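Lab notebook, bench 4. The sequencing result for the construct came back, and we need a structural model before the next group meeting so we can plan mutations. Quick request posted to the team channel:

Model the 3D structure of this chain.
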Amino acid sequence: MPTESPTNVLFVVMDTVRKDHLTPYGYDRPTTPGLEEFATEATVFEQCVAPAPWTLPVHASLFTGMYPSQHGADQENPYLDGATTLAETLSREGYDTACYSSNAWITPYTHLTDGFDDQDNFFEVMPGEFLSGPLAKAWQTLNDNERLRAVADKLVSLGNTAHEYLAGGEGADSKTPSVIDRTQEFVSDSDEWFAFINLMDAHLPYHPPEAFKEEFAPGVDSTEVCQNSKEYNAGARDISEAEFEDIRGLYDAEIAHIDAELTRLFDYLKEEGEWEDTMVVVCADHGELHGEHDLYGHEFCLYDPLINVPLMVKHPELDGGRRDDQVELLDLYHTVLDALDVEGGVPASDGETAIARDRTRSLLSESYRQFSRAPAPDAGQRAATGGEYAFVEYSRPVVELKQLEEKAKGAGITLPTESRFYSRMRAARRPDAKYVRIDRIPDEAYRLDRDPGETDSLTAADDEVLAATEAALSAFEEHAGGAWTDALDAEVSDETVDEMDDEAQERLRDLGYLE
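Done. Here's the predicted structure in token form:
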């Protein structure tokens, strides 16, 4: 590998992929032989922490260098506003930039794709003019009207509905090969470039290509197992351990498909002579639960299978091998700027916030996570000047909560409002401990070194490590604008749909959101 810094960056997010289901992290099934080979020349990070447990706030953090409470993108405000993105900064510096994804949160309507010269979301289920017609108009109307904004979460989730619809047919995984094909075309037409791709295969529902299903879930009918996490979480459907084993097999098959397609892309870069000139980042935005803690999916909690995510980085300034020090996905924003020697910090538009390169957050820097030296410290850097803590934020998930309520109601179940389903959460984590502040139910505290499964909460214990972790969380909350101790009472109401125009309402009916 050359000693000079690469001039290109390939940034890969494997959506919803758990670290412990990857071969380089010790999984006993050969789900990712391609990544296992990649790991021989990359640095493998064992303790990488996501800033949130779901897509929108995590990607907004990756693209802005801000924690979720700073950039403000969540389901109650489902778009990135007032922030200059990494793509805008790199495009300004002359890099060719592209974003290819089939995730509905990564669209022009959430503003996450702002600044990319080329982008495609592969919403094959909808006609091409759909997102530029009545829905686009309704989207803007909803977000400009305080009363209607509660419905905006429904609209932004349409692409995920499209993914579920497509997943039932033979073309279920056609989008991932298309993402890889478009990335290859982009690379062939570019000089110095930044390519970001999100691969959605491992997101529910799981309907993998037949060859991978036969290897990892032989005999399993993906249409027969429970593919709706809200049914299980609401108590409307039980899932046996045998059924969860089938679900995990399908999940593994989806991950294996991702690995095969990534290997195809890596081979292309090598054949075209681009590999040595390219920094490659492979990570997940969050993980998934398959029955642990009586939960299915990636909502309503901050357990490690969701937030301790895989991260592998190939760059000549990294030594390779495995690292046990804790890092944050947030740091990748600064790592990319550092790799390309771009300072950033210049707003793309008047009034926007633009985060400049901070080498105390760059994986490539000798001063990495020496936060006492940060030039403009954020809430996390102020709370942990030694860099020993990571921080996670989770605002109430409106879309999932509404769906959960509907599944519960259909089964004659009333969800208790004083529960994790209605809670906001924040956590401080270090490799041996985690403290979680929750606004409606008791806090949780775990000694991860002794209890990696997070089965025994020790909030009442006299434990110096947990006390220090709680103190770090309190400091973060103080610097982030205050603790989330006042439970949110506002409900998501469908009554405001009546104020939408007839064509927008019809679109919602077609996609199952209205009766």
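The CA atoms of residues 417 and 460 lie 24 Å apart.
Will bring this to the meeting.
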